Amino acid sequence: MHFSAFRLQQAIRNREFTPFYQPIVCATGGEVVGCEMLARWLHPQKGLLSAGNFIPAIEATGLGGA
């Protein structure tokens, strides 16, 4: 998917990006040992987008920061 810098900035202003937390489970004991945060975009027309759909555009436009 292609997103313009303008659309990405608009999404940031509108707080369309949201964190999703996923537990990290120990394979041997089964207990939760941590979690990872996965960014998702709640796009008004396209629905829930995973990072693979928008991170390349963020990197290409330089909006990702350091």
From TrEMBL:
InterPro entries: Cyclic-di-GMP_PDE-like, EAL_dom, EAL_sf. Pfam families: EAL. Coiled coil: none annotated. Transmembrane segments: none annotated. Residues 1-66 form the EAL domain. SUPFAM superfamilies: EAL domain-like. One of its GO terms (molecular function) is cyclic-guanylate-specific phosphodiesterase activity. Interacts with FlhD in the FlhC(2)FlhD(4) heterohexamer, inhibiting its ability to activate transcription. Belongs to the YdiV family. This is Anti-FlhC(2)FlhD(4) factor YdiV.
